[in-house]
């Protein structure tokens, strides 16, 4: 579903992402881990067309992200770590606005809104300006709107930031459900427990390079560390370690 | 802010900077020539002209000062109460007074950049026509700084007192009502001053021609202190000039102290009130929903963007309030137009007044586009990723923004031009030219402002006044005014030459055809090129 080949992003002399190659099939939850500034968000933004890569190719559902950008955008969904939404719209208006952008029939939008707002506990805030909502509520609204057009590939940057435990549980279950229904889920996080809980495969990126990839068992083997994900992660992302395991 | 502008300039290519410097200089020279022709025209009018020129400086400062005070009410509200850095500053070891004075000075800078842009060519033309030395510019600068602080201080004081003691609710709505009341009072005073038709006094006669002249001559006003002080220095009356400069500066400092004092007493409670207005349920507007249904013929994404922009605009008091003030000032202008006895004037006068009106209305349109159209892409802010990620192209987003701007500008410009030319009872060919100019100006400035706004995209700034006062905003205003001068001067010249009988009807006819061809060609160029550049810039940018 998601295919990356030698993807590189350079800002001047600095390589944010270097020669990244990945393949994520439909129905998989892929979790991208890495220290701050490792290149996780840049990768996500390149895949969603918000950042132009310096070199390399990427495709989603067989469609080249750069040359078929509009077609790709119809089948993907993206949730950034900080949900900057239109603050002078209400959640109901924002939901309808999203529906119109993706050409979802208005009747379907209204029906989905009732269900999604009930599920994400936004019903009583539907006519309050987004400006006046808390971070967690905005994040929940961003989830509601992202699922509206039933994307085939989901990109989520730090999916649990600002959410309460109840919402965290709900999001985890929802992502698992979406994956079971065939959606490819590509998420980045610093919460290692989340990756252990729901990811089918985990990729570890450090200083722009992919240093390890695989299931928990494969990562243990690649790193040579017999421990939990935290120990594997720390051993693979130690300063000076980047790149040494890339060939693994 | 200044450091930001300098950094902005350093980031631009040398060619771009040189291009802008060239245009700014060109425009300032153009305005200088325009003002100079005006002064020379008045000079040829004999005693009335001399009287007008003598009082024009104080009228000029009265006009600019009034606009500065009005715009400062809103800019101060945005800068002092709505800045995002207020919470940051409040938890740092600064006193409330220091924060208020800092924000007040920032507001002065934001609301006064256009003031200096207009003052330079006007004063230079004045000095040239009156054969004054170059030092005159220095005296003007000396007086302009306290004058700007004083006028902005009045606006800031009103805004602070109002925020603190106005009833709870939409504070800015009340503030706008106050601004309108101020404009209405100013209009009433001006109209009253012009109703002395039977009085043979020449000054009163000239007041009938230029409303507000009588008021501007009042020695109680800071505009008079400024104008009188500058001219005193200019003619070597040093003691009088120095007295007026000291007097003006003392008043400006007193206003700053008052701002500090009132800020110390009222700022925190006022700020709490402003941020405490959150959590309100938005009442659905049936008119908007009706409008949305009326746009059924548009593509889904275009309709979505239009409705989103309409809702955002109507819920952003900073946007619509300034929009309304523009119309308040226009109302003031139109009420003044009624005082012209156009039919009784000489044909030469009639042509001059007609084109002065066209220039005035066009300048208002350029300012309107610079203030409201230019920042519209930047005001998408950090939410721009939503549009960037949606299945619509950047070109389409930009064209939608252009379409929204064009629809608004066409309605405003054509109706304003029609109304003003009708009120002045211009001839049919002059009315047609005026409306064609307004039509083309709308297309060109909408294209330029949208395109240049996309090239100089600033998604981090939320204050429209700050977006407009940056490098790109200045360039946009300069280009818009440049377009206006380049297209309107040929028409003005042709009509003037004809009325002075310097060309015959045949040459006039051919000249008009060429002027129209030039107008249409330049309109196409000025609207398409910036949009293409804007689209290219949006596509190549990382979000």
Could you write a compact summary of the structure shown?
The complex is a heterodimer of chains A (248) and B (543). Helix content of chain A is 37%, strand content 24%.
Describe the overall structure:
- The complex is a heterodimer of chains A (248) and B (543).
- Chain A is built from nine helices and ten strands.
- Chain A has 248 residues and is an alpha/beta fold.
- In chain A, the strands form two sheets. A six-stranded mixed β-sheet of chain A has the order 6-7-8-3-9-10, sandwiched between helices. In chain A, strands 2-1-4-5 form a four-stranded antiparallel β-sheet, covered by helices on one side.
- In chain A, 50% of the residues are buried.
- Chain B is 80% helix and 0% strand.
- Chain B has 21 helices and no strands.
- Chains A and B meet through helix 2 and helix 3 of A and helix 13 and helix 16 of B.
Shape estimate of chain A: globular
Category by helix and strand content of chain B: mainly alpha
Number of helices of chain B: 21
Instruction: Categorize the overall geometry of chain B.
Output: globular
Question: In terms of topology, how is this protein built?
Answer:
The complex is a heterodimer of chains A (248) and B (543).
Chain A: E1 2-11, E2 14-24, E3 29-33, H1 40-47, E4 55-60, E5 63-64, H2 69-75, E6 76-79, H3 91-101, H4 106-119, H5 135-147, E7 153-157, H6 165-180, E8 184-188, H7 192-198, E9 201-206, E10 209-214, H8 216-223, H9 229-236
Helix pairs in contact in A: 3-4, 3-5, 8-9
Chain B: H1 2-11, H2 14-43, H3 47-81, H4 86-90, H5 96-129, H6 135-165, H7 171-193, H8 202-209, H9 213-216, H10 222-234, H11 238-275, H12 286-294, H13 300-314, H14 317-337, H15 347-373, H16 384-389, H17 394-423, H18 428-455, H19 464-468, H20 471-499, H21 505-540
Helix pairs in contact in B: 2-3, 2-5, 2-20, 3-5, 3-6, 3-7, 3-8, 3-10, 3-14, 5-6, 5-11, 6-10, 6-11, 7-14, 10-11, 15-17, 15-18, 15-20, 17-18, 17-21, 18-20, 18-21, 20-21
List keywords for this structure.
heterodimer; A: 248 residues; alpha/beta; 9 helices; 24% strand; disordered C terminus; B: 543 residues; mainly alpha; 3 domains; 21 helices
């Amino acid at each position: 579903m998601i295919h990356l080949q030698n993807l590189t992003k350079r800002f001047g002399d600095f390589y944010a992402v270097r020669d990244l190659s990945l393949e994520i099939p439909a129905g998989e939850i892929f979790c991208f881990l890495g220290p701050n500034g490792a290149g996780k968000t840049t990768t996500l933004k390149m895949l969603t067309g918000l950042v132009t890569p310096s070199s390399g190719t990427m495709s989603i559902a067989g469609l080249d992200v750069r040359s078929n950008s509009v077609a790709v955008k119809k089948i993907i969904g993206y949730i950034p770590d900080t949900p900057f939404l239109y603050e002078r719209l209400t959640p109901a208006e924002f939901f309808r606005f999203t529906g119109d952008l993706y050409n979802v029939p208005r009747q379907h939008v209204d029906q989905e809104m009732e269900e999604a707002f009930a599920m994400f506990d936004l019903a009583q805030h539907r006519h309050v300006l987004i400006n006046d909502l808390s971070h967690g509520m905005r994040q929940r609204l961003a989830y509601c709107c992202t699922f509206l057009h039933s994307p085939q590939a989901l990109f989520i940057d730090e999916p649990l930031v600002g959410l309460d435990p109840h919402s965290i549980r709900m999001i985890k279950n929802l992502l698992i459900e979406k994956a079971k229904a065939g959606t490819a889920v590509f998420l980045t996080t610093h919460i290692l427990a989340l990756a252990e809980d729901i990811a089918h495969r985990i990729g570890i990126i450090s200083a722009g390079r992919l240093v390890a990839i695989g299931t928990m068992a494969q990562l243990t083997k690649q790193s040579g560390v017999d421990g939990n994900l935290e120990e594997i992660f720390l051993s693979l992302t130690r300063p000076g370690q980047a790149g040494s395991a890339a060939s693994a | 802010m200044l450091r930001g502008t300098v950094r902005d300039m350093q980031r631009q290519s040398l060619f771009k900077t040189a291009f802008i410097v060239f245009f700014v200089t060109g425009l300032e020279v153009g305005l200088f020539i325009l003002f100079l022709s005006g002064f020379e025209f008045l000079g040829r009018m004999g005693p009335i002209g001399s009287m007008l020129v003598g009082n024009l400086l104080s009228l000029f400062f009265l006009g600019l000062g009034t606009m500065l005070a009005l715009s400062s009410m809103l800019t101060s509200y945005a800068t002092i109460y709505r800045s995002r850095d207020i919470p940051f500053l409040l938890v740092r070891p600064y006193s409330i007074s220091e924060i208020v004075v800092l924000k007040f000075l920032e507001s002065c800078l934001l609301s006064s950049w256009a003031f200096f842009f207009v003052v330079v060519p006007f004063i230079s033309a004045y000095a040239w026509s009156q054969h004054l030395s170059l030092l005159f510019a220095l005296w003007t600068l000396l007086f302009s700084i306290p004058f700007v602080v004083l006028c902005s201080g009045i606006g800031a004081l009103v805004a602070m007192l109002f925020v603190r003691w106005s009833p709870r609710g939409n504070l800015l709505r009340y503030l706008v009502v106050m601004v309108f009341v101020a404009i209405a009072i100013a209009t009433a005073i001006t109209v009253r001053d012009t109703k002395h038709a039977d009085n043979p006094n020449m000054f009163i006669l000239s007041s009938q021609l230029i409303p507000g002249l009588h008021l501007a001559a009042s020695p109680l006003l800071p505009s008079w202190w400024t104008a009188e002080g500058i001219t005193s220095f200019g003619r070597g009356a040093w003691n009088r000039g120095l007295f007026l400069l000291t007097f003006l500066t003392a008043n400006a400092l007193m206003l700053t102290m008052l701002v500090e004092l009132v800020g110390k007493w009222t700022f925190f409670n006022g700020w709490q009130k402003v941020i405490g207005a959150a959590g309100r349920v938005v009442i659905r507007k049936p008119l908007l929903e009706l409008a949305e249904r009326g746009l059924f013929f548009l593509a889904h994404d275009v309709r979505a963007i239009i409705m989103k922009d309409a809702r955002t605009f109507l819920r952003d008091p900073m946007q619509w309030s300034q929009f309304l003030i523009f119309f308040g000032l226009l109302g003031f202008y139109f009420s003044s137009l009624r005082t012209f006895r156009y039919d009784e004037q000489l044909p030469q006068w009639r042509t001059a007044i007609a084109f002065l009106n066209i220039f005035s209305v066009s300048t208002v349109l350029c300012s309107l586009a610079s203030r409201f159209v230019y920042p519209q892409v930047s005001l998408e802010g950090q939410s721009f990723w939503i549009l960037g990620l949606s299945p619509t192209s950047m070109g389409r987003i930009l064209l939608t923004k252009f379409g929204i701007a064009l629809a608004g500008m066409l309605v405003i410009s054509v109706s304003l031009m029609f109304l003003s030319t009708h009120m002045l009872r211009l001839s049919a060919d002059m009315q047609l030219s005026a409306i064609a100019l307004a039509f083309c100006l709308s297309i060109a400035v909408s294209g330029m402002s949208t395109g240049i706004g996309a090239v100089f995209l600033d998604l981090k700034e939320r204050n429209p006044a700050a977006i407009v006062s940056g490098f790109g905003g200045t360039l946009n205003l300069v280009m818009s005014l440049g377009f206006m001068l380049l297209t309107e001067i040929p028409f003005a010249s042709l009509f003037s030459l004809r009325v002075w009988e310097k060309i015959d009807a045949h040459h006039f006819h051919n000249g008009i055809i060429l002027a129209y061809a030039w107008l249409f060609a330049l309109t196409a160029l000025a609207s398409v090129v910036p949009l293409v550049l804007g689209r290219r810039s949006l596509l190549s940018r990382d979000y």
